[in-house]
């Protein structure tokens, strides 16, 4: 089973940059998109049909902001929009789909903002995600949490850590939450398979030719519960896929006996 997660920074923008052709060529079983920036009213106009996929969107109340979408080849057993927590559902940041072998949480975590004005909200959101995932695990569920976490966890996860100690996405409070999350047993599967390797990023600013120079951050993750590690076949950052300031991340799982 091939899963891909990608912050598209506006789905209407990537539609103009060969998105459908890329999707039909890559053929993931499940595609999770973040920062779709599309309103409920526009979805049917833009997505009458993408051959071979069932489409699920969670759009926020604020027009052209945030939003996630999950495209599935096979219909999920269940689809849930949001975290069952009203305070954190207005921005359309979470889609949960049940695929039998696992539950998939497609999440666009908040950005703390340039002035860190949303740091408190972000940390509260993160804690609610962790609490919800723990609830699922206690129910015996295997869980995949993918998306744009808006956190570079360790110094190895961005090109210039010393210059970004006070930058949103690398704040001590954010990094501390990510440490806590992983200490609960969730596995950052890319880092597990690429320990100590530098230069692996998923986001680059549009300025300063950052992408060409690979001056980036790794903020997009597949994190999984330990009971899924044995099913991991492959994980890869698809750094050559253009169309957004983020690139996709791929995870292949194998559930054959």
Description:
- This protein is an alpha+beta fold and 257 residues long.
- It has helices at residues 11-15, 19-26, 40-46, 119-138, 172-183, 189-193; strands at 2-7, 30-34, 54-58, 68-72, 78-81, 94-98, 103-108, 143-148, 187-188, 220-224, 232-237, 249-253.
- The strands form two sheets. It has a six-stranded mixed sheet. It has a six-stranded mixed sheet with strand order 5-6-7-8-10-9.
- Strand 6 and strand 7 (103-108) form a beta hairpin.
- The chain is globular and about 45 Å long.
- The model has no long low-confidence stretch (mean pLDDT 95).
Fraction in beta strands = 15-25%
The CATH architecture classification is 4-Layer Sandwich
Note the run of SSEs as H and E. Answer: EHHEHEEEEEHEHEHEEE
CATH homologous superfamily classification: Endonuclease/exonuclease/phosphatase
Assigned CATH class: Alpha Beta
pLDDT under 50 segments (min length 5)?
A: none
- Trace the largest sheet across and list its strands: 3-4-2-1-12-11
Distance between the termini: 14 Å
- The portion of residues assigned to helices is 10-25%
Q: Structural class of the secondary structure composition?
A: alpha+beta
How many helices? 6
Q: Would you summarize the structure shown here?
A:
The protein has six helices and twelve strands. It is α+β, with helices and mostly antiparallel strands.
Can you tag this structure with a few keywords?
single chain; 257 residues; alpha+beta; Deoxyribonuclease I, Chain A; six-stranded mixed sheet; 6 helices; 12 strands; 22% helix; globular
